[in-house]
Write a structure and sequence with these properties.
alpha+beta, SH3 type barrels, about 35% strand
Length: about 80
């Protein structure tokens, strides 16, 4: 019975969380300059440059640097990456 409970927890909780983490890691590797992103705090901006752990982002009249982990999604790709 305890083994069955562990298997259920694995498929219901642990495995989906691991898959989501892999998808987010792939998303962060795919961020390029010119992409329009949305951060976890809701800021929408355009990526100006990509560094190892940070991104330079322009949103409206402000330019700031954020960590890559703060990117929630890429809302619009640059024309170069969407054609290939």
């Amino acid at each position: 019975m305890p083994a069955l409970l562990i298997v259920i927890f694995y498929f219901a909780l642990i495995r989906p969380q691991q898959q989501k983490a892999k998808q987010h890691a792939a998303l962060l590797k795919a961020v390029k300059a010119g992409d329009r992103i949305i951060t976890t705090s809701g800021i929408v901006g355009v990526v100006l440059s990509v560094k190892e752990k940070t991104l330079s982002v322009r949103s409206a009249d402000a330019k700031f640097e954020i960590t890559k982990s703060a990117v929630a999604e890429i809302s619009e790709r640059t024309a170069e990456t969407s054609e290939s």
